[in-house]
Design goal:
Shape: globular
Strand order of the largest sheet: 5-12-11-10-9-6-7-8
Number of helices: 17
Number of strands: 16
Helix content: 25-40%
Distance between the termini: 37 Å
Strand content: 5-15%
Structural class: alpha/beta
Oligomer: single chain
């Protein structure tokens, strides 16, 4: 309800309160605001509709008099009836109870706040984990989508594993990373999130234990939790996830699989060393612990390419490898891939066909053309230069304004700087303070619920001017509200 686009017409002959009353009544009558729906506080409504609070009070009084809403101290104002309900002896469905009963967990409240704020173009987004629209290859994409004669484009359903020509192209692309994968062992998916969702419902039993780095991206999405899985965090250092206790923890907690982001980890930006990769692969093979390797940031290196993926050294089919173009080419294409043993890929492909009948054929066509034409590598070369410049610029701002109140490491690629505040101010409190100033942050509690010291600073989305303005204002907030 906080995303209301409608506004009353201030030059209309109809009084403002009556316009608002009619709008809200229609929402209730049409079943868009069902019984049990909570109405925002009067101040929020006044802000949403850009009117005085007294105007809202009059409109709500009219709805109350109609028997459509009710206000109670401590629980706010809710829809209690609709006009059809007033005329009928049988009550309408209680959709709110259905919403609360759904098996998929809702996002934590702060994630919901972030998602809503990201839709507001006035916010400076210092934590957003995607490329700025200015960095996306819009013109090139337009040319790519101008389909030439001789190029086959299917607008029908594509085979369960995805376009064969795209899978062949991805197979060739993966060879540059040292990964040998036939098209039969590749499944095209609608981004990394869907890859995790398919794994969670297609391969795991409810109650399974998922190991991951802590902090972790997994804590900001509820893919595994909503499928009934339990997460177990393992600490990481500047070389990546610590491996010395994995065997003991696996046996103690009966771990099912391990999820890791070796390249430019989300949210810390850590690059797993080659030594640690080999150690992790060895211990997981010894313990028969499968690995999900999430490599969506792997192409975004700056000074030198990262070590080869875990999958490149996997001779036993121990690793499920996830790749995507969402962090590089376009988040809107929604195209990624899973690489794994053929029986696993066939199982996941069957589940995918049951859920969406395959990823967009048009998006698959576009990604194939980018990869096989060489344009993707050309674009990556330019993108790395721009992202490296943004990283260096952000580091300069941090050194100038945060050197006495925070600590950080310089990432070697990706989007993120993991900023540790030393001033004593809670990053959850800082999130609220910054939001009032038009700055959107990603606090550490999003990635580890007990972490109130860190911020995930992203240099990929905000413009250079916004980065400077937002970070300087953030430094003032930290200084003013710290110890």
């Amino acid at each position: 309800m906080s995303e209301i686009e409608w506004k009353p017409q201030k030059n209309s002959a109809i009084p403002l309160h009556l316009q608002i009353y009619n709008y809200m009544k229609m929402k209730i009558m049409n079943g868009e605001w069902t019984i049990g729906t909570k109405i925002p506080p009067q101040r929020n409504l006044a802000k949403l509709f850009q009117v005085n609070r007294s105007t809202i009070v009059i409109a709500l009084e009219e709805l109350t008099a109609d028997g459509l809403i009710e206000s109670k101290i401590g629980s706010g104002t809710r829809v209690i009836n609709n006009t059809w309900g007033l005329l009928s002896s049988t009550p309408p469905p209680d959709w709110i109870s259905y919403v609360k009963s759904g098996i998929h967990r809702p996002n934590i409240s702060i994630i919901q706040e972030i998602n809503k704020a990201e839709a507001n173009p006035d916010f400076i987004r210092l934590g957003t984990g995607e490329l700025s629209p200015d960095l996306l290859p819009t013109e090139e994409m337009t040319k790519i989508l101008q389909i030439e004669n001789g190029h086959s484009l299917s607008l029908g359903y594509i085979e369960p594993k995805g376009s064969l020509s795209l899978r062949k192209t991805v197979s060739d692309y993966l060879q540059s990373k040292g990964i040998e994968a036939s098209p039969e062992s590749i499944l095209i998916v609608s981004g990394g999130i869907q890859a995790l969702q398919l794994i969670s419902i297609g391969l795991l039993e409810r109650g399974s234990i998922i190991f991951h780095e802590t902090p972790s991206y997994l804590n900001s999405v509820h893919v595994f939790q909503s499928a009934g899985m339990n997460l177990f965090g393992i600490p990481l250092d500047d070389e990546g996830i610590k491996c010395d206790s994995i065997g003991r923890i696996k046996r103690q907690h009966n771990g099912t699989l391990l999820y890791t982001i070796p390249n430019f980890h989300n949210p810390t930006g850590t690059l797993m060393s080659e030594r640690r990769r080999m150690e992790l692969l060895k211990v997981c093979q010894r313990e028969s612990l499968p690995i999900i390797e999430d490599d969506v940031y792997g192409d975004l290196w700056f000074e030198s390419p990262p070590p080869k993926p875990l999958k490149a050294h996997d001779t036993q089919g121990n690793v499920l490898y996830i790749g995507s173009v969402s962090k590089t080419l376009s988040p809107g294409l929604r195209i990624g891939w899973i690489v794994g043993p053929e029986p696993v890929i066939e199982r996941l492909a069957d589940i995918k066909m049951q859920t969406d009948y395959g990823s967009s054929s048009l998006s698959q066509y576009a990604v194939e053309k980018w990869l096989c034409s060489g344009l993707y590598e050309d674009f990556l070369t330019e993108l790395r230069v721009e992202l490296r410049f943004r990283r260096d610029f952000t580091i300069q701002i941090l050194e100038k304004y945060f050197s006495k109140v925070a600590a950080w490491s310089e990432p070697k690629g990706g989007f993120y700087i993991w900023l540790k505040l030393q001033s004593g101010v809670s990053t959850r409190k800082l999130f609220d303070l910054a939001l009032r100033e038009g700055i959107l942050l990603n606090p550490g509690s999003v990635y580890e619920k007990t972490d109130y010291q860190h911020l995930r600073i992203s240099y990929s989305y905000a413009s250079i001017e916004q980065l400077e303005k937002g970070l300087i204002l953030l430094a003032r907030l930290v200084s003013h509200h710290g110890k």
